[in-house]
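Sharing a chain and its predicted structure for anyone who wants a worked example. Both blocks are below, sequence first, tokens second.
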Amino acid sequence: MRFHIAFLAWIAAAGLAAAQFGPKPVAVVNGEPIPRSELDAVLKLRPQALTPLTAAQNRAIYEQVITMLVDEVLIRQFLVKNAPPANPAEVDKQFAGLLEGLKKQGRTLADFCKENQQTERQVRAGIENQLRWQAYAAAKITDAELKKYYAESKDFFDKTTVQCSHIVYRVPSDAPPVEKANAEKKMREMREQLVAGKITFAEAAQKYSHCPSATKGGNLGSIFRKMMVEEPFAAAAFKLKPGELSDIVWTDFGVHLILVTDRKPGEGSDFAKVREDVRDCCAEEMRMNLLAELKKAAKVEINLPDK
């Protein structure tokens, strides 16, 4: 069974933000405004809160949705310049396939839109963008690169898992260098205490980790090699044997120490049989890396609504 990772990632995105001018766009991405109507369309599909939300909670929701809309615009702007337009007939075919699949599950398009907080137009736009991305990625990913990606990620395709715990100091990716240096210094001192046996990993996590998992001694449970945690974290965790402690690991969330507590071998895999899954994963990782680069270079103005 194919994972369809790339397709699902596009469907899960917030959808297309139309290039139309409004009095107060919620964001402007490289000169292209995202009107308030785009934000409102997504918010209407959110489940009704059981209790009134605080101003801080509403702000967090606005930020989350606007971030998704900005990401979608950045990718679309890139595809307009670097990929051929999608064939409208193919978009219709893919959309019809989605409807048929939902029907077999006893679900409707309205159900799907509500679950994914998208309008029908946004779903179709997601399909169009995915087709354009597939065309772009197909021209970039060679057979040799696919085999290399498979070899480097074989644990994922074998479905191997590791159980791990972590301690993290939250540091924004755009934090000043001195703040990052101080966080790393503290984490290295923490590691020395752990290695010396002055404190257990669970105790250190409970006292110092900036993660909800701190209450469980930093336990994150079992993870796969891809798609569950950031790549630097996963790469470090899968290099460890049960009982081993990592060196300092940086991600966009901050600085970590990782302890692997168990490893379960997977089912094994054959490249010829999972080739298309490998292609999907490789293309999606390419998209994520591209988006990170686009964000760094983009000029984005965010205007959070008052209510």
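Comments welcome. Residues 161-264 form a domain with the Chitinase A; domain 3 fold (CATH 3.10.50.40).
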